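ok, trying the design again with the full structure, not the truncated one.
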């Protein structure tokens, strides 16, 4: 079922659309990975495609880049171009599929610089900011995962493209380097570049103009980060004891440091939760807390799918009951 169009999507549609994917499906063997993705990206937008590993984010990015053909659906870039036709206007970093391990970092940069018609000489500055310069003459096969990500990102950002498709650009990077990558992407976005990046790290949500959550092969929610946070059910923080999971939506709680977090079920209140905690001698606090990006990720990754499954099961049971009642009446 298509997701409801939000106010943010309506605004994006009024702007020039750079990428328009409709009902995109892709499977491998007997398994479906994408089951009808609808996604639009406006010119100058920085959109973060979020979801846990294995939900098809990288497969979708590969389809959008023209590296993989979808089984169904349509993908148009810019003024009606296919992903293959639009390659001269896009720059792509697919995780683990870009660099040649037999070449040095510098040779990889030179190879892709010769290959792309819109490549620039900016790689020196980018590599320096990503603290990669001292390792450019080492074979890429000796690179750690984080170093490989920095090289892939340097290759992609060296291109003066209209659209950047970046697969997990902050994967395996430390917090300081993630901030550097965020700064780079915000600079590119500030210059009017369009960026679509995938991520399973809540930290990447903070730089997005819009987030699209992928679950079960579809986009299940998309809006501005602030709007998505506002739409979350009440977030509860528990300190000093273990709260019963049944008091929270989808029977899920999440440990973060010395606290337990979850989403308040409609039939539960804070006093009920506090009364159900075996605290021993600890001082227990149960309170609402403003949701974080980690809360947002946990909700759409773990809680909302369970709620959807429960709703579907209830609907199926109601349909079965109505059918049985009709048969009985006859």
């Amino acid at each position: 079922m298509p997701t409801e169009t939000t106010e943010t999507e309506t605004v994006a549609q009024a702007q020039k659309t750079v990428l328009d994917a409709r009902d995109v499906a892709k499977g491998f063997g007997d398994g479906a990975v994408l089951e009808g993705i609808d996604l639009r990206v406006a010119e100058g937008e920085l959109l973060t495609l979020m979801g846990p590993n294995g939900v098809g984010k990288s497969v979708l990015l590969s389809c959008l880049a023209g590296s993989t053909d979808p089984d169904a659906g349509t993908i148009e870039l810019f003024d009606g171009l296919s992903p293959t036709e639009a390659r001269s206007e896009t720059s792509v970093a697919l995780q683990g599929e870009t660099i040649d391990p037999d070449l040095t970092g510098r040779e990889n940069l030179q190879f892709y610089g010769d290959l792309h018609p819109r490549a620039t000489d900016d790689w020196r500055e980018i590599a320096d900011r990503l603290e990669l310069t001292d390792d450019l003459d080492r074979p890429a096969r000796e690179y750690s995962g984080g170093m490989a990500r920095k090289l892939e990102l340097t290759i992609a950002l060296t291109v003066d493209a209209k659209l950047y498709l970046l697969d997990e650009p902050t994967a395996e990077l430390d917090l300081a380097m993630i901030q550097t990558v965020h700064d780079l992407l915000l600079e590119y976005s500030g210059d009017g570049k369009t960026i679509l990046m995938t991520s399973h790290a809540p930290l990447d949500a903070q730089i997005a103009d819009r987030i699209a959550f992928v679950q079960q092969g579809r986009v299940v929610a998309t809006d501005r980060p602030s709007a998505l946070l506002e739409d979350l059910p009440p977030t509860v923080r528990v300190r000093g004891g273990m709260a019963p999971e049944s008091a929270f939506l989808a029977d899920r709680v999440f440990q973060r440091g010395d606290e337990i977090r979850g989403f308040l079920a409609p039939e539960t209140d804070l006093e009920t939760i506090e009364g159900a905690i075996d605290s021993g001698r600890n001082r227990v606090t149960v309170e609402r807390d403003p949701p974080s990006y980690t809360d947002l990720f946990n909700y759409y990754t773990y809680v909302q799918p369970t709620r959807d499954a429960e709703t579907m099961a209830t609907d199926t049971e109601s349909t079965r009951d109505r059918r049985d009642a009709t048969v009985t009446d006859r």
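Keeping the full-length input from now on. The chain has nine helices and 13 strands.
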